[in-house]
Structures are given as C-alpha cells and as structure tokens.
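Priority: medium. Attachment 1 of 2:
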C-alpha cells in the first residue's frame, strides 16, 4: 500500500464515528466505511477483427484506439456501434478490534470472471487487500497514536476525532480492507 494512501487511511480511522448516524456506546471500537463508483461508456467507432484494433468514441467526442489482448474473449461478437461500458467500484473498510497477541499482516486476493465462448465480451476483476496494524502507543494529551505495520515499521498519526482514541487500547488490531472492482461489458447497438 502506498504511503499517502496508508496515511489517509490511518487519519480517517480516527475521524468521526461511523456514518450510520447511530450513537455507539463508549466501549465500541472505532470503524469506518466508504466507497465510490464510476460508470463510463463509449461507442465502438471501428474494429479490425484480424489485428484486434478497436477504436472507441467517448461521450465527449474524443476517440481512443487500442489493441485488444487475447484476454478479450469473443471479440468477433463486437460490431461498430456497440457500446462498451466500464464500471469501477472501490471500497475501504477500517475496523479496530481487540485480539490477544495479534501481529500485523497483509494479504491479497484477486478473482477474474470472463464471458463464455459465444457470448458478448465481458470481464470482471475484483482485487482485495487486507492489511492489519497493531496499536503500539496512544498519547491522549498530544492526540496521537502509533501503529506497527506488517513490515515492522512504526508510524505516528494524529487523530481527527480525539474521542475515538479513548475507545482504543494498546495492542488492538486495526484491520484495513481495500477492494476494487472493474467490470467491462459490451452491449449490442440498439
């Protein structure tokens, strides 16, 4: 995970309580969830099935050309005028949990689903990374906390919401789950 994203995550961790609007008892550990998504589409302007070169016209009128890799199944189904739709969803979940003798770790998983032979081309890829860090120190007076990451590095952060520091204990585990989903589909022109 890059350093600026990691810092943003840690700062956000101790931001306002969960967005649900519910009030949580003081014993509840802080948590945070956020997501964003975007959908764009473009029309197939030109396609050469032999060379696999595809030209797309975006909604702003600009065109983009590329060579489709062999990963793009069923390219022979695509015709000029078809619509390519790209969807992107990204989510971030951060949770503080009490775990005895916890250690910082990181792991990731990826799943890929493609259309079957003869169907219109589509592909969806989901990437998830889970990183844990251990709370090493809390300084209520300075409104700061230190986390030990998976590589043994210790970083200091300033809490955006000092009240959340009172809900965390040294040794608690911070679980950060980042998921991104990219989906590309082709719809026949109508």
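Attachment 2 of 2:
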């Amino acid at each position: 995970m890059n350093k600026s994203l990691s810092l943003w995550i840690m700062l956000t961790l101790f931001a306002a309580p969960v967005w649900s609007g519910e009030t949580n008892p003081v014993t509840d550990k802080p948590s945070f969830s956020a997501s964003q998504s975007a959908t764009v589409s473009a029309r197939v302007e030109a396609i050469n099935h032999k060379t696999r070169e595809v030209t797309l016209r975006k909604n702003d009128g600009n065109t983009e050309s590329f060579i489709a890799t062999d990963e793009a199944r069923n390219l022979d189904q695509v015709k000029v005028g078809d619509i390519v739709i790209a969807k992107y969803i990204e989510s971030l979940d951060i949770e503080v949990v009490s775990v005895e003798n916890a250690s910082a770790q990181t792991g990731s998983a990826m799943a890929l689903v493609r259309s079957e032979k003869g169907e219109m081309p589509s592909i969806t890829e989901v990437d998830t990374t889970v990183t844990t860090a251990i709370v090493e120190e809390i300084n209520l007076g300075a409104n700061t906390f230190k986390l030990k990451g998976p590589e043994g590095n210790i970083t200091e952060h300033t809490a955006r919401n000092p009240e959340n520091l009172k809900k965390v204990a040294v040794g608690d585990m911070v679980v950060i789950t980042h998921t991104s989903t990219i989906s590309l589909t082709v719809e026949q022109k109508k």
